[in-house]
Amino acid sequence: MVNKIFLKAAVLFAIIMATGCTSIPPVDFTIQDVGVVDARKNIELKSLTVGFAPKAQQSKVEANATIPPLWKESLTDAMNRSLIFKDDMPTKVNLSVRITEFDIPAAGVAMTTKVSAIYEIVDRGTGDLLFTQKISSEGVVPFDYAFMGVVRAVESWNRAVRNNIADFINVLSDSDLSQPVFER
Predict the structure, then answer these.
(1) Separation CA 62–CA 64 (nearest Å)
(2) Which DSSP category does 85 fall into?
(3) DSSP-based three-state secondary structure for 139
(4) Nearest 5°: phi and psi at 106?
(5) Contact 78, 34 (CB under 8 A)
(6) CA pair distance 56, 174, nearest whole angstrom
(7) What is the pLDDT of residues 20-45, one digit of tens each?
(8) DSSP symbol at 119
């Protein structure tokens, strides 16, 4: 009888300690490993904006105003480290990112966040649209990552946006930006 009580107390203590020692990760979309791309673009990036798409373009957006600046900072960092754009080039462009989906998990064993954003690159000199693509990604965090659901949820946000930024750089690396997307 004493052993069962002791065992239950020990298990309860271990759960409390495991939960108490787990801290909520910061919202951080920075990609850890970004390599230099093989196909650098002969254009200069002059402006980068990240914001929410108009309601008509959105699906489910469960995010507040803190998300776009964090996304922008991490995207800037990833592009800088990838060296995808060159400096002092005749063609100068703007990159606009409009978040269309930020679907966070309400609850669950494995937490999955879904994000989507429309990425557009416009030639500042001509106004031509050189690139446009909606990129969707997920961030999945299994139950064994952390006992506390909020820890898994925040990490799923981080992973979803990191995956989205990485997917954008991969797609952009393979894209031809020398011609407009649409003929005038």
Answers:
(1) 7
(2) B
(3) strand
(4) -80, -40
(5) yes
(6) 30
(7) 456 888 999 999 999 999 999 999 99
(8) E
Both structure tokens of 155: 């990490």
Rounded-to-integer distance, Cα 76 and Cα 31, Å: 11
Closest CA to 100 of 85, 75, 83, 119: 119
> Which stretches of the chain are DSSP H helices?
2-21, 67-82, 149-173
Low-confidence ranges of the chain (pLDDT < 70): 1-22, 184
pTM over 0.70: yes
Cα 98 to Cα 119: distance, rounded to the nearest angstrom:
7
In terms of DSSP bridges, do strands 111-123 and 129-141 run parallel, antiparallel, or are they unpaired? Answer: antiparallel
8 Å CB contact between 18 and 147: yes
Neighbouring C-beta atoms of residue 139, cutoff 10 Å: 24
Report DSSP state, residue 54.
P
CA nearest neighbour of 139 among 162, 156, 122, 121: 156
Tell me which residue has tokens 């606009």: 96
